[in-house]
Design brief:
The complex is a heterotrimer, with 2 copies of chain A and 1 copy of chain B.
Chain A lengths: L2 H14 L6 H7 L9 H14 L5 E6 L2 E6 L4 H10 L6 H13 L2 E2 H8 L5 H9 L3 E6 L7 E5 L1 H6 L11 H10 L6 H8 L1
Antiparallel strand pairs in A: 1-2, 3-5, 4-5
Chain B lengths: L1 H5 L10 E3 L2 E3 L10 H9 L4 H11 L9 H17 L6 H18 L14 H22 L28 H18 L9 H13 L6 E2 L9 H17 L3 E5 L6 E5 L2
Antiparallel strand pairs in B: 1-2, 3-5, 4-5
Helix pairs in contact in B: 3-6, 4-5, 8-9
The chains are: A alpha+beta, B mainly alpha.
């Protein structure tokens, strides 16, 4: 595969990946392809890409576990305004992941993905752990020994709950929905939040 | 789907099912479906219009020249078959059957010649079929568009940590509940996953048990039961331990009958 | 601010933002700056950037609510290897309902049911609203005042479209008259189809 064909593929991979990619892991991604590029070709293409980004607002940066595309720190001033302007909100994916961990703990990432029908990015789990709402509880004894997640005491504190039992059941959520389609469970819980 | 197309041409002789003891041989030529595949087949249709459209297409019938009698016959046989197999038959299919029957009966009536006012009884049906086909196609086209999460991915580009404090998002409990409701509703609609309602108390207790035990040493089974919690509390603890055992998260050890039971995490 | 200085800033913004940015919202981000670029300058720089990405694995794409950086669909084959999970699939019933709302908005649930010949489950409408693809537009002033539905900007964003005009054209219904002039009813009904 020549470099002109390889480079945009690598760019797409770096852009989409939620974690740094090493030359080896990229090499593996092509395994089985008719035109599998060699590691040297990959390395070469990465270096050409790095040069290409010299005038860009992004850069391809080598970190411990591989290469990743990142915003150049020089543009921090402007980028940070994106958050000043609008208070940040969590994505739907994050909220759903948190809800599933809260209601179905202990639960693995794979189980969350099964229920949601989409992959859960590592970033989401990372954010939830950084916020100290979610923690690993151990490993499930199945193939791959995936981590089991649960909520923390900090989670309960944040939501002003004494225990998980205070979370309404799904049936309650739905019942309320039917009587107050707009308000849903707002009224009931508003008081207890702040 | 392979079955009924391949078998279509030479299937008229063989009884294809026994219905109340009677061999059922008269089946629509192009609709030979093994009975156990019928459910799958039925699920492939979005409704009576879709089924009708399929029958018309498969037989290469000009939509403007539908042999109403033949189609009605097929359609009715199809419905009988659904009944025999005790499939839950949507009312819409019956409505469509009666519409076909009505058209058929009107076609049988002698029509005054050269009457411009008299609408062809098939017109309404054809109009509906065409309109449905139009949107069926539109839905396929829409489904084929590049879209997020499938062909289009948003870049996940690392942002260097800023000096300024990025405020953390505020979340209210109602947002959390809404998220849970959404994900459960969606899971129920799109997949066969069943998010069964389990008492939360058991889940919570499972976590508490996991927190308390370690893989290195044994904890006494009895420490997980507190009389003060009453019968319910004891039951919840017991269920939690059983559940953890089922998920192979813990192991229970008892050296001999009536000896103390110990719990330890599976390392 | 000249274009060579503006472009990398814009790139950094697009790379960092988790949703599309409009020319106006970018303009606002610069407010208060000594060298605040004008909207035309921003527009110009965006178009230059779009060209710049022609050989890249990413593209700067205009969708309904603004411009966004995205991985080019052409590289989906490789990118999908990064994740194990399959993308969500939607039922035909949901897609047909969505198509009717998109092409025939404003439309009531009853009207959708008439065309599809089957009832539309509440779950479908709810899912479409939860995905923020569909919203109620008001009520039809007929008996029962049924809700009229239409699509949102989020729908267009999701399906990679700038406006409803970019939807695939609805196939024409054959001009039946020409083939079967003897069928008098055709003319009568044609009008009501489109």
């Amino acid at each position: 595969m020549d470099s002109d064909r390889l480079k945009p593929i690598l760019e797409a991979l770096f852009a989409a990946s939620d974690k740094p990619l090493s030359v080896n892991s990229i090499f593996d991604l092509f395994s089985g392809d008719l035109e599998q590029p060699g590691k040297d070709e990959i390395r070469q293409a990465i270096h050409e890409l790095m040069d290409q980004y010299s005038n860009s607002g992004m850069e391809l940066k080598q970190v411990a576990s591989g290469f990743r595309l990142q915003v150049k720190p020089a543009y921090e001033t402007w980028v940070s305004r994106l958050w000043e302007q609008k208070p940040p909100r969590y994505s739907r994916a994050l909220m759903e992941t948190l809800a599933l961990i809260a209601y179905r703990q202990p639960i693995t990432r794979g189980e969350i993905e099964d229920i949601r029908g989409v992959s859960v990015s590592s970033n989401i789990i990372k954010t939830l752990q950084e916020r100290e709402w979610v923690k690993p509880l151990g490993h499930k004894e199945v193939l791959g020994r995936p981590t089991l997640y649960g909520t923390t005491k900090g989670f309960l504190d944040y939501f002003n709950l004494k225990s998980l039992n205070e979370l309404p059941t799904l049936a309650e959520i739905r019942d309320l929905d039917q009587y107050h389609p707009e308000l849903a469970f707002v009224e009931k819980n508003e008081a207890s939040i702040n | 789907m392979q079955n009924f197309t391949n078998n279509a041409s030479n299937q008229s002789e063989m009884p294809f099912a026994l219905v109340q003891g009677e061999p059922l041989t008269v089946i629509p030529q192009d609709l030979y479906i093994p009975p156990d595949a019928l459910l799958v087949f039925l699920e492939a249709f979005e409704g009576p219009l879709d089924l009708l459209l399929y029958m018309i297409k498969r037989q290469n019938i000009d939509v403007l020249n539908i042999p109403i009698a033949a189609i009605t016959k097929q359609y009715m046989e199809y419905i009988h078959l659904m009944e025999e197999l005790e499939l839950e038959l949507a009312a819409e299919y019956l409505v469509m059957a009666s519409m076909l029957a009505e058209i058929k009966s009107r076609m049988l009536l002698p029509r005054p010649t050269e009457s411009a006012d008299e609408e062809d009884p098939r017109a309404e049906l054809i109009r509906r079929l065409q309109e449905y086909e139009l949107f069926k196609k539109a839905a396929e086209d829409l489904d084929a568009l590049d879209r997020l999460e499938r062909e289009i991915h948003l870049p996940d580009i690392e942002i260097p940590k800023f000096e300024i404090d990025m405020p953390l998002p505020e979340v209210q409990i109602k947002d959390l509940l809404a998220a849970f409701r959404d994900v459960v509703n969606r899971a129920e609609q799109f997949a066969s996953h069943h998010v069964e309602r389990e008492p939360l108390s058991v889940r919570e207790r499972m976590v508490r048990v996991l927190d308390k035990i370690s893989a290195d040493e044994f904890s006494s089974f009895y420490d997980f039961f507190d009389d003060k919690e009453g019968r319910m509390g004891v039951v919840v603890s017991f269920l939690a331990i059983l559940e953890l055992l089922k998920e192979s998260l813990i192991e229970l050890v008892q050296s001999e009958p009536y000896a103390p039971i110990y719990i330890k995490a599976i390392s």
